[in-house]
Design brief:
The chain has 21 helices and 4 strands. By secondary structure, the chain is mostly helical. The protein has a two-stranded antiparallel sheet. Strands 2-3 form a two-stranded antiparallel ribbon. The longest helix is centred in the middle third of the chain and has 29 residues, at 288-316.
Length: 484
């Protein structure tokens, strides 16, 4: 799930009085009309890329760390290619069709759903097929005009709780994948499931790399340094390379990758994962109801995140009209739905709009030309796979913890904690995701609790929420009925 990154103010006054267009590119993207210039758009596109580029490292680490029901792993190098390819093409599409300065890439949060909830119960092609179906559902909702109606039916407090829960969930994933937190073996015969480090203590240079990386990331965020996450990943990786070269300890384990500088940082992209999709195979593995809930979980994660991101970036770019609406939003939402499906089709997980695009807006970007620049830079990144695959988990996972904090900080204040019919479902949504290691459970218990508590208080419940809560309730009761 993307989050806002520190931005810098443009040294030139953006949103100046509209000027006459100076050429075909200017007319198509309405650059002068929106008070921008071509240099600002280019600078904004570059800024957005560098604040988003960390996804080229994190997405492969998250997906490659998981196995499907057959024990198969996805190849890290192929995942870098898939991540860069889909981000590049969908961001270019957003520029050409949506004409807004918004970049798209694999969404943090959605990729953890795919890696930790879908894949273990089916094959990777089955899991990616579920993502494609979620994308088709989003496109259908946009085409029929139902997306905004469904969005409005879910209370703001629950929407924000879903975001916060996902933030805490990916933070826990980051802590576990780095080795900072580990599972206590069942042989220990304790009810405490987690512990600090591998044995209750922080030991080893890999954990040191994680701690240094986390502290550096947080310091850069506090200092509002553009590209804070990417800079910290690069510095922590350099530290890991130095330690690996200078310290000869056989017991030193780096996890997913060994931090060795590649002999050649440039390599041809490997498109081996593109098209490896089974649209309906997952339903055969888990059943129709569970499969529908999995698709719904992916849809919900993308659904609310994208709408909030699009309006937030558009507001900062001063693209909203006097009513607070964004002209042409349906085209933008359709591209977002296409991006979700495209992420499944390339096995890079659902792609969505990134709030990091505000970095480009801060540099003066106001049009889709900035997205063209960002998309082209992702295409260039297709040939830099060796650099991305050299990053060890301990250097990348600080970003997950930081992203979790930023999501919580941006969302928790918007929940009405004084209204218990909202606060309790929001609380359950938030805690169930990390505590049960399942985003689906968080959404399910939150929706069920909301409907029950609102009815108990004699307050109305939107009809769509009855349907969703009823499906989740039946899913949880299936074992009692002997159906699971």
């Amino acid at each position: 799930m993307p989050v806002a990154q520190p931005t810098t103010e443009s040294p030139e006054p953006a949103d100046a009085a509209p000027q006459p267009p100076t050429g075909a590119v200017d007319r198509y993207f309405r650059i002068s009309e929106r008070g921008s210039t071509l240099p600002r758009e280019i600078r904004g596109g570059v800024a957005t890329f560098f604040t988003m580029a960390y996804i080229l490292v994190l997405n492969p680490i998250i997906l490659a760390s998981a196995t499907d029901m057959t024990g198969a792993h996805l190849d890290s190098a192929q995942l870098v290619t898939a991540t860069a390819l889909t981000a590049g093409l969908t961001t270019l599409l957003m520029g050409v069709i949506g004409n807004v300065p918004i970049g798209l890439a694999a969404g943090l949060g959605v990729n953890t759903i795919v890696a930790l909830q879908l894949a273990p119960k089916m094959t990777w092609p089955d899991a990616m097929g579920m993502v494609v179906l979620a994308g088709f559902a989003i496109m259908l909702l946009v085409a029929t005009g139902l997306r905004e109606r469904v969005m409005n039916a879910v209370p703001l407090g629950l929407r924000k709780a879903i975001a916060i829960g996902i933030g805490l969930f990916i933070s826990l994933v980051g802590l576990v994948d780095s080795g900072f937190v580990s599972r206590i073996p069942d042989a220990a015969h304790t009810t405490v499931p987690l512990q600090l480090g591998g044995n209750g203590h922080l030991l080893g240079f890999p954990v040191l790399v994680f701690v240094v990386g986390l502290l550096l990331t947080l310091i850069l965020v506090i200092r509002k340094v553009p590209g804070a996450i990417l800079i910290s990943i690069a510095v922590a990786t350099a530290l890991a390379v130095v330690i690996d070269k200078l310290v000869d300890i056989p017991a030193l384990k780096w996890g997913l990758t060994v931090p060795a500088w590649p002999g050649n940082p440039v390599a041809a992209p490997d498109f081996g994962l593109v098209g490896k999709v089974s649209l309906f195979g997952g339903f055969e593995k888990v059943g129709v109801l569970t499969g529908v809930l999995f698709v719904f979980t992916v849809l919900m994660s993308c659904f609310f995140d994208a709408m909030g991101t699009i309006l937030g970036v558009a507001d900062e770019a001063h693209l909203l009209d006097e009513k607070g609406d964004l002209p042409g939003i349906n085209k933008i939402l359709m591209v977002d739905g296409i991006a979700t499906a495209a992420g499944g089709a390339t096995s890079s997980s659902a792609n969505t709009c990134f709030v990091e695009s505000t970095a480009g807006v801060g540099e003066g970007a106001r049009t889709g030309f900035a997205s063209i620049v960002t998309g082209l830079l992702f295409v260039v990144a297709l040939f830099l796979t060796p650099l991305a695959t050299m990053v060890p988990a301990q250097a990348a996972t600080p970003a997950l913890v930081t992203v979790g904090f930023l999501i919580l900080a941006n969302s928790i204040k918007e929940i009405d904690w004084a209204d218990y019919t909202i606060a309790i479902p929001a609380f359950l949504t938030i805690v169930m995701m990390p505590f049960t290691y399942s985003i689906t459970n968080g959404i399910g218990f939150g929706f069920i609790a909301f409907c029950i508590l609102r009815l108990a208080a004699g307050r109305t419940v939107p009809a769509p929420l009855y349907v969703v809560a009823g499906v989740f309730a039946f899913y949880y009761l299936m074992p009692a009925f002997g159906l699971l």
